[in-house]
């Protein structure tokens, strides 16, 4: 992992800066969350159903709103994130809301070095795998942390979306669907607050659906389903239109915006 250490350090620094901005943003709507509103979206709620009494590991949890939303629903949660500022805020929220979630600061690929228990559910969502250079160690770690018969669930932005460069507000197709080379981006603002003056410096990688699916299969997981959707729960791409169900679509939709995978450890 040595060659990637610098990339991860730069990303960690950016995510540490994002925490303060995001915690104040309309998108994360902290007051409503603290008052009891869930941060979870219909996809993951439908896929995982009743989590009461189940153990749940949330990978790349940012500052823990989704983790704590699962916790409110009765799951025994552990959240993992690269950002120590994110984990610090997550722990503070957990205490303030009198929940029993735990949070661990580490690179998601190193989770098994920091978390030894196994879980009924491993969950991750929205803008997560693009931070990882290789999905095989990620999938192996997921398998290690799942109980036999346990469920892995991911809902994520579709890889086609990451083929475009959005920096100037006009999507331009620039990157390969399955790009192996690292992609560096530097821009002012963040997806939750475009007007912020913070500078995001980010290293990422593009992973096609076959890479995601095959990494999970190779790690010993059985895919229950793979679905694709023409909508996004977040208004984080240019020129999206809000539709009746509260989701967002493109004006001229030619490809999906989300995919979800549910898998079982056999």
List the helices and strands and how they pair.
Blueprint: H1 2-23, H2 30-34, H3 42-48, E1 55-59, H4 65-72, E2 76-81, H5 84-96, E3 102-105, H6 111-114, E4 119-125, H7 135-145, E5 146-157, E6 164-165, E7 172-173, E8 183-188, E9 199-204, H8 209-218, E10 221-229, E11 240-242, E12 248-250, E13 258-265
Description:
This protein has one domain: Rossmann fold. It is 30% helix and 27% strand. It has 8 helices and 13 strands. It has helices at 2-23, 30-34, 42-48, 65-72, 84-96, 111-114, 135-145, 209-218; strands spanning 55-59, 76-81, 102-105, 119-125, 146-157, 164-165, 172-173, 183-188, 199-204, 221-229, 240-242, 248-250, 258-265. The strands form 4 sheets. The chain has a 7-stranded mixed beta sheet, with helices on both faces. The chain has a two-stranded antiparallel ribbon with strand order 6-7. α5 links the parallel β2 and β3. α1 (2-23) crosses α5. The longest helix is centred in the N-terminal third of the chain and has 22 residues, at 2-23. The chain starts with a helix and ends with a strand. 35% of the residues are buried. The model has no long low-confidence stretch (mean pLDDT 94).
